[in-house]
Amino acid sequence: MLDKNPTFIRALLTSLFSLAIYQLSGRGRGGNVWVSPTDYLQFPLLLRALFTIFPASRLVFIRYLFGIAVMNACRHLLGKAEEKVRPKQPDDIYTVLDTFDQLGRQKSQELKKVGDILVTTSFVNNEVDVVIERNLELEKVTACIMASFETIWTRFLANHDSPTPFLDQYLNCWLHSWVTTSNPPVSTIRIVGMTANFGLL
């Protein structure tokens, strides 16, 4: 409803939050679609910002800021277990599961996707509308995510949309550090961070 109706979006006040019980036309990368399972947390959040205080080159960081809000919510609700919940660039949320052998010894770690963050934008005159769609288990985490994101978003705008205060926190918990290329010649590349403009690796 929000993603495909820019005229409707312009008539709404921001920041608008809508909690959905069912999602019948979910959209992901590459045109993937799905019908949501029951008992999942899913909602859109509509934000609006002026380009005079929020240039287009910084829009990419909204998904990372929201990822931090999810990590903060997990820390609040789960304690040390939050270290098992990690962002995977650009928009996935994973949990790290420990597997054990028959004697109870840790055998390996397995990654399982538990959610994603989809950010869409529409531009009108000198403003940008941003819609964040979230799918995540554990319904009780809603209030924690929104409270955390409100604090982060306010600080982000107050710092003239500079991602610097947040990048270290995001990079310390993400799943990327090394990437092996798939096309010849095969090589291993170390990812050391992201640029302050456009969020390039």
TrEMBL record:
The chain crosses the membrane at residues 7-25, 45-66. Keywords: Membrane, Transmembrane, Transmembrane helix. SUPFAM superfamilies: Class II aaRS and biotin synthetases. One of its GO terms (cellular component) is cytoplasm. Signal peptide: none annotated. It holds the Pfam family BPL_LplA_LipB. GO terms for molecular function: biotin--[biotin carboxyl-carrier protein] ligase activity. The keyword Nucleus does not apply. Residues 16-129 form the BPL/LPL catalytic domain. This is BPL/LPL catalytic domain-containing protein.
